[in-house]
## 1
Amino acid sequence: MNLPRGFRYAATYAGIRKVVKSDLALIVSDTPAAAAAVFTRNRVVAAPVTLARKNLKASRGTACAILVNAGNANCATRTGDKVALETVRAAAKALGVKPEQVLPASTGVIGVEMDASKIVETLPKLVARLDAACFDAAAAAIMTTDTVPKTAFAEIKSGRKVAFVAGMTKGSGMIQPNMATTLGFVVTDAAVSPAVLRSALKRAIGHSYNRVSVDGDTSTNDMVAVLANGASGVKPPAKAFEAALTSVLESLARQIARDGEGASKLVTIDVEGAANERAAEKIARSIANSPLVKTAIAGSDPNWGRIICAAGYSGAAFDSRKVDIDMQGIPVCRGGLAADFFEDVLKAKLDEKDCHIRFALRGSGRGRARFWTCDFTYDYIRINASYRT
Amino acid sequence: MNLPRGFRYAATYAGIRKVVKSDLALIVSDTPAAAAAVFTRNRVVAAPVTLARKNLKASRGTACAILVNAGNANCATRTGDKVALETVRAAAKALGVKPEQVLPASTGVIGVEMDASKIVETLPKLVARLDAACFDAAAAAIMTTDTVPKTAFAEIKSGRKVAFVAGMTKGSGMIQPNMATTLGFVVTDAAVSPAVLRSALKRAIGHSYNRVSVDGDTSTNDMVAVLANGASGVKPPAKAFEAALTSVLESLARQIARDGEGASKLVTIDVEGAANERAAEKIARSIANSPLVKTAIAGSDPNWGRIICAAGYSGAAFDSRKVDIDMQGIPVCRGGLAADFFEDVLKAKLDEKDCHIRFALRGSGRGRARFWTCDFTYDYIRINASYRT
């Protein structure tokens, strides 16, 4: 895929992680870009989230760079704000831009003091390495328990010109819908105003990151940011831009679910016929977050009783006699009752890497929602029982 | 412990479970007893829940018997209502009481048709076996994935007389706070009116079953019922009765958490200093339901960052700079920041079977709540990946 013009990237190991593996990344736009971001709604907010929000306000929705570290969340520490500010200032100085045009982001363990000097001292080297071709290196540096880097791309055509959109993200625990979940960064060379960027991001997030769940936990550091530098000369219609942004964010969100901690399967949940979209979303989220549904999927067990049960406690009103459920396209429940299906055939289909659950309410309403989650396996426990140590 | 007078119990294998192990139990009061029950708030409700609710209404809060089966939830089936009614009628006939004085309850797999004849044909044998000493046999018959039967007892003294309270319950998956979770049956020979029984049960449930969580899933079949037959001649003050009932239900709820599917540890969460009890409960529930907190406890990892994070997305408002967290009595967080503690000492303490988390807000309010949950281990996955098969 073609990358947007006018952006450069760099990544290196700054000694923040215990293991020697890139843990610091820089994304730079050659010219000040329109910028927008969504942040965690957790009451406990990491220092970089607070500073990024402040900088976006001070710069009136423009930014030149994103500075990201993995290995330490810089959250719930004595020196958090100071560390965030110091590293942002150092990056701004090295890049020759204003500090408010640098957006900081962190991911990693909470409650451990972060050593600003590690980042400050590494920055000159990082800036020297900036290169338009290092997009993938940056995507790798922001990984924590992710098993694969996650990137997605789109194009926006306008006459003979094309603008490009490229995104990177990281998972893979503490993923919960209804938040600007995890870290995600999107760059584009489309020309978009900060106001259009903000509203496009808000809507696109609603149908992507806010519809994905790994474990129902929401991080203190969640952030998705977009930079649009206009280097393509393409000024796309707002709708076309939003569609491209949504497709990139949706792909990234799906990749997060597929790479959920310990996950072996991507589960797509489609809810149809609910009273409205909100009710559909409630039902889908409840199914997506149910450990019993997720363990059944891990075991390729077509246990639709757990699906209807999770819908039942979602808080959305529905008549259980009007529920149809399909798994892998095979009817397992019709009108709230067991449908006839060949258990062995369905079990074999549930062994596939992609599982689909359709939950439809007959003749109720037009509310629909799509959600992504993953199965719940031994490995989730293994990864999380000793994350800190 | 002494059992309440005027009750008899029986249990047997009726062929509902696949494995040969008691799956049908009967609890009978020799005289019509005051009766009260709380039921699941799931939208999808099993047939026995609907019928038990109806019978309690028709009998104006009296009952002679509880008929319970394990192995099939009798939920989301074509013949559910018919099966529930048929078995209740057969029990009533065999006992010589009115059908509305029999409360049915079921637990097991959802969506599989239940064969009423198995129960109807077994009932004469079951009634013939009724015995005041078979309390434990009944408690064993209602188990599903429970590893141990769960019972609790209390006494109410009144002058020289004593009334007894005895309870049994089953877990151990699909346990979620804010519901009359799982199945629980309490019998007492105290003389209590249906109205007093109802209000005492409602309040007692609020501080016991509604404060326990295994996996955040809420069953379609949850029910806790109490029968009070007055056989002791003791008419206790409402407060004394409520205290005894609460102590029994609290003990049962704790036992459910300790025996949560795959659990190796009981986790008690105390929240203090919240704006009000509701806010305290929200925070405690959020911590109790966090898979990240529960896996950290499984790994004896004092990862308090996950605790403050779970509190942060609970929906309760608080200032993170006023948060103190203790684990096993050792301060791990003060004023939202890491406290100094010896990691190895705390890790060793977290290896114990009982874990305690204290989450206190400084100088905020008087709201407090206690919650129980369990750790999240490999075995939860093993048990639930193939429950049906």
## 2
Amino acid sequence: MTVEATEPSLVTAAVLIIGNEILSGRTQDTNLAYLARKLNEYGIQIRQARVVPDIERDIVEAVNALRDRHDYVFTTGGIGPTHDDITADSIAAAFGVDLVVSPEIAALLERRPAPPEIMASRMRMARIPRGAGLIANPLGPPGFHLGNVYVMAGIPRVMQQMIDSLAGKLRRGATMRSRSVTAFLPESQVARRLGQIQQELPQVDIGSYPFQRDNRYGTTLVMRGSDDAALDAALGAVSRMIVELGGEPLDVQAG
Amino acid sequence: MTVEATEPSLVTAAVLIIGNEILSGRTQDTNLAYLARKLNEYGIQIRQARVVPDIERDIVEAVNALRDRHDYVFTTGGIGPTHDDITADSIAAAFGVDLVVSPEIAALLERRPAPPEIMASRMRMARIPRGAGLIANPLGPPGFHLGNVYVMAGIPRVMQQMIDSLAGKLRRGATMRSRSVTAFLPESQVARRLGQIQQELPQVDIGSYPFQRDNRYGTTLVMRGSDDAALDAALGAVSRMIVELGGEPLDVQAG
């Protein structure tokens, strides 16, 4: 189920996570979940995410596929000073533009003195695609944006600063809100009636998440959408269903 | 950098994570990192991952894009009994085949008695694409595989049982091993020489991961590849570089 058809003001995004360390399992990505919650505060909904290695053709292909089909693309990773940081080069290639040195980033980097060799390496981070704007970063060199593509660091606390700095600067669409309720009923017991409730309330996206706790089967039912009245109606219908099936609605939450 | 060009026996995979809850940030995915480590034990390397919502056209498009370009595709999520579990339907659509009831899964589901309505819902989990084989699951209904696409549960402990059951049943390629070493040197200080080492050892994939600890900048250098002699050479070269730059090679690990 999607709310797309009934929500004209939906603003969509894709997330592109760049880095071998995520695909090898060395690093557990946490940026996607953070971005999902933060972008929802901004009224932007993530509709797809991809993880690609530090290979230019893979990054270019993903950026071009995603930027055509979403209002925004947010990338994380690959903007440091080492040989494996190829995101700026790849974004420039994706847009068919040159890399240029940003005088603002260069000035920032030059504030902290360093021997020539180190400064030269650091200056790699001043290279941005021609025409790109900057994304503020109080912790270090800025990110950048070009067209609808926003390029951020991979280190979570740096990425978080960058996305925070974009508050109020992006097109705002519907914010999704949620209701959830849990019951110690197995999923197969709620499945048929839950499907009926979903059909009756197509503007709400109802998800069913089974779990096992203290040797009992349970299900958490999550309703998401931008219409509070419809969400409350869904929560009411699902809670009544739980009672009618002999369960107890537990841990009701609204968000 | 990639080892593709120098590693003829590379076996590649893509991972497709299916579920609105991952894209909304409600659930933190951990399956990708687990699969990366487990598949590497099996000699299979993940080269891309995607996260898509519970929308059939999105799943179909991703499955078809990924199965053409990788030796294997592993999916997680969407194989339960509720209306939002549409992975089996989507895989059947991607391959252009019917959904059929698996007699083996139906027999398994019928072992546990239930009223007709619940049994009918549970039987949704017996529907698999025509021609699919089963993936064993001691915790519940099996997953399935069709062509090079392996369809598994989203719940981590169930997914883990399923991928474990595939041990020895997949084509085996090179296993990547790693060396890593950490130094309290900022990335920009190691960047130039590290790039030279990478150029001299193209069969090793060298990654550089900066961090800040106790108010000091540091960098962890990770070398991955299938050639232990080359990995040891890279570790030696990187360790010497650290010493020459005035640092100390710390926390050396081999994996």
## 3
Amino acid sequence: MPDTQYDVIAIGNAIVDVMAPCSDAKIAELGMNRGGMTLVDEAEAAALYAAMGPAREISGGSAANTLAGLAALGDRCAFIGQVADDQLGAVFAHDIRAGGIDFAVEARAGEPSTARCLIFVSPDGQRTMNTFLGASQFLPAGSIDEGAIAAAKVLYLEGYLWDPAEPRAAMRRAIDAAKAAGRQVAFTLSDGFVIARHGDDFRALIAAGMIDILFANEAELAAMTGESDFEAGVSALAPQVPVLVVTRGEHGAVALAGGERAQVAAEPVAKVVDTTGAGDLFAAGFLHGHVRGWGLASALRTGAIAAAEVIGHYGARTEADLKALVAAKLG
Amino acid sequence: MPDTQYDVIAIGNAIVDVMAPCSDAKIAELGMNRGGMTLVDEAEAAALYAAMGPAREISGGSAANTLAGLAALGDRCAFIGQVADDQLGAVFAHDIRAGGIDFAVEARAGEPSTARCLIFVSPDGQRTMNTFLGASQFLPAGSIDEGAIAAAKVLYLEGYLWDPAEPRAAMRRAIDAAKAAGRQVAFTLSDGFVIARHGDDFRALIAAGMIDILFANEAELAAMTGESDFEAGVSALAPQVPVLVVTRGEHGAVALAGGERAQVAAEPVAKVVDTTGAGDLFAAGFLHGHVRGWGLASALRTGAIAAAEVIGHYGARTEADLKALVAAKLG
């Protein structure tokens, strides 16, 4: 196998998060599903924004958050996603490139605008997300640089982006390119609604051996397997994928690969401020260990450390020196 | 005097802050003046932004930060400032209105874009600011609602905005409206460069009795008076204004009014993350006490509490429930 240019190349939504604290009473009053992710159109986004308190804007997007964590850990990364040619698109592109991540997709002219995720953060840190996908859902298949994908150890895909048709076609092309080059494909299931709509696609990809590393949380595991019992779900899914990682929030995470199973407790956090990005950063930490050939236990622990850092402040991009933090904690 | 509609109405720059941590070595390498504020044009702003790490966007602007603090403390506020008709302008307008502050100035079409302040935050929390004033410097005199100004207890003006000609004319009109209605005018000197360019204007306004409350930090006091000794500066300036407030960073602040003098120590802070907005929030706390008729000591203490809150996190807008915080600390 030739040398690789990237450790991880990812395809995901190019989103700027707009975040404000919010009481649970107000979340209920606004008819939002606490803890969930809801797709909204531009008019709904405008109405929710008007109801939102003073906010801050921080680049987000699930796979982009994961890459930002990987780059902070010292991995070589590239991102593929679609912004519009507007100020928030410039913000997203700046932040991803300033993190040392290659990002070559040109901004898209005209409407719609760059994707935004309105995030209402409860006093306990739980986040309730409302996403206007905007330009992000128009990522064209032509944006896929097959050479770059063939030159990356892992292709990481965000399930959220399987929903709109154009990026789905782009991701299928990317999977083919990765597998043709003998690379690994990692996939995060992202949300129950994605599985409800596209679970058959995912099951077919898994059956065809196209997914090497699968990330899920407990709810997604249940949605994928139809098993409400955690262990039954794990037993059903683990034999189908080379590596399965299931995150369980405050209960830590479990990983299974080649008949081996490891688990990790959640890393202690002084105060949970905002859980946005917890799963994304867990994936970053795990993939960091994976591409370095660490065992399951160390990869899981790195995921737990990265997730703990990101939930201690607003925003899904790490603030601390993640590399130093992991080095200090892993010893 | 008729009932008032507002406690404080303010005229200031309408700016979105773009903030990222930065080493002092990088600040020196970029040729920036650590701790200072430098005006930059759009090309310089773009070059600095390209050199900046992953950032977050939080509404700023000196007087707007002060109003956000006052509104959080329960005061009735209105803001006058100019944004462009673009995404960052919408962000600024949303954040100010979401804080409960009236803001009626229409966004300005076309170039330049909404003002941005690129803030490089040193490991010790010191901020180094580079401001692209954009639309903010084109606040027209016609934007001054003289009825609203006559209906506010205090008109608060930001010295930064004295520099560009159009807002200066607007502020002169506002001062006349406030004084004609028997209202108080508060003024913050903002920065040494403003005093270097417009000190004679400020001295003339003071001599004409147009400034009732003057805010300065130590460097601004020295620039205004030509006295490098703090006490000499205070002795020179205090007799000229009904209320003088001088902030001294970690050394607290002093206020003088009607022959009385009070001082306050800086409020302890667990960790200084970002000093952006410290002076603005100090002014908010002081004005809050002032419009309620509190004594100098309580007003100063409220300023110190508000300033301590804002330097404990990124951004110049408070995150904590400032009203509850002040109530708990003042007892």
